Amino acid sequence: FRKMAAIEDSLYSEEVLCDLNFTDLESYKKYGISCVSPGDGLKMRPLEKGDFDKGYIILLSQLTKVGEVDREKYEKQFDSMKKCPGTYYTTVIEDVTKGRIVCSATLLVERKFIHSAALRGRIEDVVVDEAYRSRHLGRLILETLTLLGRELGCYKLSLDCNPRLIDFYKKFGYSEGSALFLVKRFFD
User: Fold this and answer.
1) What sign does the dihedral 123-11-23-133 (CA atoms) show?
2) Which residues of the chain have a pLDDT value below 50?
């Protein structure tokens, strides 16, 4: 019953992560960490409905302005995202000893008509809790979602980042694109 409840409460199936082959990734080769073993007391998994209580929104506030997101808004957004299977792969690392989300990122998969009706991926909202930095969790979650995007058949992945982080992302094969990224905000 617990496994069924976990599947219902997860944004996507955890098996998606477990099926990835990490043996060629730097995180595994250099640091011995992977999706199935991200470090002592840590677990990588899909975002779950109950992660509101594990500080998910608080973690996101270390990345950007989150605004007012109470449990009701969180659960409504979670349910909306879950109704789009194959689109949202929000992945977290939980410190299970503290019941706290300490790292997160999202692979957003867009269905296109171009490139023979291909998939395009976007890496969004990469954040590691300040207390857990220098443990290679950012590297691990980025490599995991990059590998997942490739395995899902995305013809390309892109991400937006602070200019001071460009060199970090280049380590993973990302390069500065030729397109200029423009933004029009309707509210903060």
Assistant:
1) positive
2) 1-5
